[in-house]
């Protein structure tokens, strides 16, 4: 008899669910019968064949298969020489033994290329605890980001009230400040907890020269030998992540005069707010442009970046000579926008490299007319993309538009949740979760006629993933399973196929919802995985909360096949 158990909901009423005994789905039973003997025992020889033929683990050995069996003997006490159906099913559902991404390969990409050859896990206004206008500033969000593998931390630095020290806050807003020195010390303490690859601190500088000198002293004393300081005023080529292991890098615009910030006065209506994010609903709007749309969908959108956090480089250059030499020497990655429009911004200088920042809307507009030029620029230089200023509630945008143009630093608000952020988290599960993912070769290559990748080109299908996918526009498909009602162990047994033209940038995003006929569906869990690192075969896929925290015992059993 199946066991029964009573669960209390909201202390208001009780509902009894029927908890089925762990019964393997028919497909698993069929596979077990095929790879076991007539007595219902899967020996090491059988299991090795299963690993090679179904899981596509061609190098699997009988010794490895026996290790798996030994780890599940407690579930198969009457079959010491192999697995029975229950222990086989338990093995398949074990995320520790059977994850969708291989835990053993770790950081496996070449890390010896220049920084410009990598996508880098990047935060925006990393110090904010909530919205962009009135939330507290703190080092806690910085610590949380570093612990999740984020490699680029952004700090806006301003004079404190007495103008004798430096605070971090979102300028011209009602956010409460946090001391810069506190943020720097927290960065040093937690920088390499999740990854030993370099941490970049991008500074939005609103300081006078004397306070810039003070910041230089703070940074030098705090980081000491782990601070990377270039030996020349500008770099001809960026160093590699490998050469910068456990180092901290400073990136900012060249020093400029401090402009007094005007106090923010709220109108009677209060500060301008963006519309509520539909993706906070169980089934809301998709990530923009991921349903077959392209960047051309945005060509009529005006750039409304009221909180644009970049200024022209010419103003900065005028007062560069006034800044403290100590501060200027710390800047390893120079940022700024040359005067003269987009064409000048995207010019590639063979003698020096730099960082350019564009808002999400500025990038979308630029991609309409200068897509290939952006790709060429990002082969040597760094492009940072940041959220438009009207994202008051700290929502995010579609990161794939930046990535498909080679943008290394697609800066995100990390303090919230939503489908866009899940895509970001999925991307950086790749390469051992180190925060650096090597860009696909097609974004780095230059052809015989000096041609580069065209993000608008219609490309042939390279492979088909048999199992939603989020990727470049042609690879964007969303599909839903049929509904399974009142079952805590649902089995869908459905197959989806996704043709992929650019599998190197494809992400598989999965959401689980509790179907409710009378009300909106309830969110159950989500995950996002880099398609190019998926392991073929039947895998245990853990689910995560809205905030990206892994559930302890909630998994999906999924089969992946590339055809």
UniProtKB/TrEMBL annotation:
GO annotation, biological process: intracellular signal transduction; lipid catabolic process
Domain of life per record: Eukaryota
Domain C2: 387-545
EC number: 3.1.4.11
One example GO MF annotation: phosphatidylinositol-4,5-bisphosphate phospholipase C activity
Entry keyword set: Hydrolase, Lipid degradation, Lipid metabolism, Transducer
Enzyme class: hydrolase
Record's subcellular location: Cell membrane
Annotated ranges, domain PI-PLC Y-box: 357-443
Cellular component, GO annotation: plasma membrane
Pfam families xref list: C2, EF-hand_like, PI-PLC-X, PI-PLC-Y
Biased composition (Acidic residues): 266-281, 302-315
Membrane topology: Peripheral membrane protein
Catalytic activities: a 1,2-diacyl-sn-glycero-3-phospho-(1D-myo-inositol-4,5-bisphosphate) + H2O = 1D-myo-inositol 1,4,5-trisphosphate + a 1,2-diacyl-sn-glycerol + H(+)
Chief place where the protein resides: membrane
Region ranges (Disordered): 258-321
Presence of keyword Ligase: no
Name this polypeptide is given: Phosphoinositide phospholipase C
Protein's organism: Glycine max
């Amino acid at each position: 008899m199946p066991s029964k158990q009573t669960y209390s909901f909201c202390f208001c009423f009780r509902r009894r669910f029927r908890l089925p005994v762990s019964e393997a789905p028919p497909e698993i039973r069929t596979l077990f019968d095929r790879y076991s003997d007539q007595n219902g025992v899967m020996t090491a020889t059988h299991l090795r064949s299963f690993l090679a033929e179904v899981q596509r683990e061609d190098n699997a050995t009988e010794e490895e298969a026996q290790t798996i069996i030994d780890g599940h003997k407690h579930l198969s006490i009457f079959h010491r020489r192999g697995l029975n159906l229950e222990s086989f099913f338990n093995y398949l559902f074990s995320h520790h033994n059977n994850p969708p991404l291989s835990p053993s390969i770790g950081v496996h990409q070449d890390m010896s290329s220049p920084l410009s050859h990598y996508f880098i896990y990047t935060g925006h206004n990393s110090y904010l605890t909530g919205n962009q206008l009135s939330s507290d500033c703190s080092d806690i969000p910085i610590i949380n980001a570093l612990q999740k593998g984020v490699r680029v931390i952004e700090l806006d630095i301003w004079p404190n009230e007495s103008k004798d020290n430096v605070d971090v806050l979102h300028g011209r807003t009602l956010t409460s400040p946090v001391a810069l020195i506190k943020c720097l010390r927290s960065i040093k303490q937690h920088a390499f907890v999740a990854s030993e690859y370099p941490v970049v601190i991008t500074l939005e500088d609103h300081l006078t020269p004397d306070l810039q000198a003070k910041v230089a002293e703070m940074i030098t004393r705090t980081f000491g030998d782990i601070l990377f300081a270039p030996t020349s005023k500008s770099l001809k080529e960026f160093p590699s992540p490998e050469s910068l292991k456990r180092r901290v890098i400073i990136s900012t615009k060249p020093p400029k005069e401090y402009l007094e910030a005007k106090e923010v006065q709220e109108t009677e209506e209060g500060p301008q707010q963006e519309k509520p994010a539909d993706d906070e609903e169980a089934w809301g709007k998709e990530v923009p442009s991921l349903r077959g749309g392209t960047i051309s969908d945005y060509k009529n959108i005006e750039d409304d970046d009221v909180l644009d956090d970049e200024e022209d480089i010419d103003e900065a250059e005028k007062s560069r000579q006034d800044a403290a030499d100590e501060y200027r020497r710390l800047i390893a990655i120079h940022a700024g926008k040359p005067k003269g429009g987009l064409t000048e911004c995207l010019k590639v200088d063979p003698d020096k490299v730099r960082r350019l920042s564009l808002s999400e809307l500025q990038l979308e507009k630029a991609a309409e007319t200068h897509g290939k030029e952006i790709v060429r620029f990002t082969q040597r230089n760094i492009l940072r993309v940041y959220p438009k200023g009207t994202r008051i509630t700290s929502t995010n945008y579609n990161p794939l538009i930046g990535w498909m143009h080679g943008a290394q630093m697609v800066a995100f608000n990390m303090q919230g949740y939503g489908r866009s952020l899940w895509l970001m988290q999925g991307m950086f599960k790749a390469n051992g979760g180190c925060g650096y993912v090597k860009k696909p070769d097609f974004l780095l290559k230059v052809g015989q006629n000096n041609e580069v990748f065209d993000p608008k080109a219609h490309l042939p299908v390279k492979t088909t993933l048999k199992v939603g996918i989020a990727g470049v526009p042609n690879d964007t498909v969303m599909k839903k399973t049929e509904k399974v009602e009142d079952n805590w162990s649902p089995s869908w047994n459905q197959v989806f196929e996704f043709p992929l033209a650019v599998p190197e940038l494809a992400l598989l995003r999965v959401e689980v919802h509790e179907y409710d006929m009378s009300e909106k569906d309830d969110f159950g869990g989500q995950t996002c995985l880099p398609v190019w690192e998926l392991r073929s075969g039947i895998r245990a896929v853990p689910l995560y909360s809205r905030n990206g925290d892994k559930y302890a015992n909630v998994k999906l059993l999924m089969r992946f096949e590339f055809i």
